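Structure (tokenized):
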């Protein structure tokens, strides 16, 4: 035994050398403004300093990731960042992420703490070159981490405050030469174009550029663009034309839309919104939308008169608003269809399902016309909103068929990803801990009840033996009786079976097989979120051959692109394993 113990306790320094395993890491860089580039925080500079740090400390950089986005952006817009985080969690060789400073990682203190702990649980630590080294397992480290992350968030919010203050002041400032107000960026309304003016210099001789709106005088279909815009507003919208009628007029004249070749009804819905009509009437308008693109109330808008040349008069703008307010939302008249919103029961809508011909989203579509196509469908957004311009005849896919194919694929992958044995073991361990804690509480209550009963007996014995302070004794006896009643009630609540409860493995496996049944009981939003946990995208490749029948749904090719296996589902096959796309015909 002593020989075995000696071999176990033998120090590596006793004549032998055990080399340390080299740390493998990802490098992350991020910028959100040109000002950061000027201050030496450009992505190339951040990555250069990270490489120097890694070489100095013997760290191998396996991959470099970078992104130009705000650290306050929601996850769906920080694509590269999310890709790096998922790769770090799933790659067991990666044990660190190197950043120039933690503000490059995240500026939201709550999200940053959750993210750092999730990465830590996966064995990945975030190393900042500029921030002090914090031992997150120590008491002082907990305080320091909170202070550091709060500092980053406070700094970012201070920048946002001054940026908004600057935007509000900028839109109210008039150019000394033209007399028009400056703009804060963004695409001008259709009918206007942005003109950049140099107005002095800023630090380091960099020119100070300001923007104003001027009429768009490009010739399109025989007229300047601003004349087409005025005609649509005054001769069509102000005289009661519907969104579809204005859309069809523009497409019929060959007038390109502001962002793409063909017009859609939703574009005109935006152009006839009150804030747009104010701008067409010559007003400057700012702060129309807040966080997550939600509309702010008009009382919070910043409005400036005579900010640029007006295309319509105030009376014309008011007339359009009156007509729009009196009209009920109209449905497409010829198809008998009702478009579904993002909150609908069409779980693949909202950008997950796309048309391979024109790139438009496949939209939820319920047909009520009874002419051979009554029911629920997915249809290319080009057909729904632009009368099939840019895509061709609309492709209609039955909702139940395509969604069932996606759900079958999800169920198959869930069965491959999940591990009922491990899940059952973890639950049993938690039940054992709860049972032990519950039993311990019950035993403690029984001990307290025994002590209380003993005190009551002793007090009664003292009274019988002639204790002089009878008043105090009776009060104390009443308190003890009340305490005993409370303990007896708690003891009754803690009565539990002597046998420790255990999870039935066969029942867990049965639930695993019935995973797809979840959607039958899920809300619309829950169903959409569940599908997005497993599916990256669904692509449609419409049939190109002529079948002889208009909008024939057969022979269309559907490809479902599933996500890689999440680290928490890994089952003895290594993290980050992906699945081949599933392709089938409808």
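Design, position by position:
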């Amino acid at each position: 035994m002593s020989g075995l113990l000696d071999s176990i306790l033998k120090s590596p320094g006793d004549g032998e050398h055990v080399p340390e395993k080299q740390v493998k890491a990802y490098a992350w860089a991020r910028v959100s403004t040109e000002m950061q580039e000027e201050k030496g925080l450009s992505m190339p500079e951040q990555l250069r300093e990270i490489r120097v740090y890694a070489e100095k400390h013997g760290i191998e950089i396996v991959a470099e990731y970078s992104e130009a986005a705000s650290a306050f952006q929601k996850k769906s817009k920080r694509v590269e960042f999310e890709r790096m985080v998922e790769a770090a969690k799933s790659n067991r060789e990666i044990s660190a992420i190197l950043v120039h400073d933690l503000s490059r990682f995240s500026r939201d203190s709550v999200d940053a703490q959750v993210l750092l702990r999730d990465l830590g649980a996966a064995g990945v630590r975030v190393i900042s070159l500029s921030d002090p080294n914090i031992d997150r397992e120590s008491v002082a480290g907990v305080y320091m981490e909170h202070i550091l992350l709060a500092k980053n968030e406070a700094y970012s919010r201070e920048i946002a405050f001054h940026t908004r203050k600057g935007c509000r002041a900028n839109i109210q400032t008039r150019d000394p030469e033209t007399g028009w107000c400056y703009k804060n960026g963004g695409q001008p309304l259709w009918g206007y174009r942005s003109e950049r003016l140099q107005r002095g210099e800023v630090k380091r001789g960099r020119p100070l550029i300001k923007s104003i709106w001027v009429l768009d005088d490009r010739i399109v279909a025989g007229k300047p663009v601003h004349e087409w815009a005025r005609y649509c507003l005054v001769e069509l919208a102000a005289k009661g034309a519907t969104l579809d009628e204005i859309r069809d007029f523009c497409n019929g004249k060959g007038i390109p839309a502001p962002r793409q070749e063909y017009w859609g009804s939703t574009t005109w819905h935006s152009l006839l919104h009150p804030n747009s009509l104010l701008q067409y009437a010559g007003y400057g308008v700012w702060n129309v939308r807040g966080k997550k693109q939600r509309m702010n109330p008009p009382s919070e808008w910043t409005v400036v008169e005579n900010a640029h040349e007006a295309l319509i008069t105030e009376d014309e703008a008011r007339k359009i608003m009156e007509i729009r307010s009196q009209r009920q939302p109209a449905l497409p008249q010829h198809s008998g269809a009702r478009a579904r919103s993002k909150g609908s029961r069409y779980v693949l809508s909202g950008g997950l399902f796309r048309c391979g011909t024109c790139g438009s989203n496949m939209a939820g579509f319920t047909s009520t016309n009874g002419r051979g196509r009554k029911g629920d469908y997915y249809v290319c957004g080009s057909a729904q909103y632009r009368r099939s311009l840019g895509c061709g005849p609309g492709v209609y896919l039955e909702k139940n068929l395509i969604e069932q194919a996606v759900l079958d694929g999800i169920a198959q992958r869930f069965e491959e990803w999940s591990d009922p044995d491990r899940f059952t073991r973890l639950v049993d361990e938690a039940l054992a801990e709860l049972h032990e804690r519950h039993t311990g509480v019950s035993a403690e209550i029984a001990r307290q009840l025994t002590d209380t009963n003993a005190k009551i007996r002793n007090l009664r014995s003292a009274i019988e033996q002639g204790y002089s302070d009878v008043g105090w004794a009776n009060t104390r006896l009443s308190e003890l009786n009340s305490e005993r009643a409370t303990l007896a009630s708690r003891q009754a609540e803690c009565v539990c079976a002597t046998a420790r409860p255990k999870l039935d493995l066969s029942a867990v496996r049965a639930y695993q097989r019935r995973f797809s049944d979840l959607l039958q009981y899920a809300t619309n939003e829950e169903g959409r979120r569940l599908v997005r946990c497993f599916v990256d995208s669904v692509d449609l490749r419409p049939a190109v051959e002529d079948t002889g029948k208009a909008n024939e749904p057969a022979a269309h090719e559907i490809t479902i692109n599933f996500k890689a296996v999440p680290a928490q589902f890994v089952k003895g096959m290594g993290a980050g394993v992906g699945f081949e796309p599933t392709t089938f015909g409808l």
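Reviewer-requested clarification: The CA atoms of residues 460 and 466 lie 10 Å apart. The longest strand covers residues 59-68.
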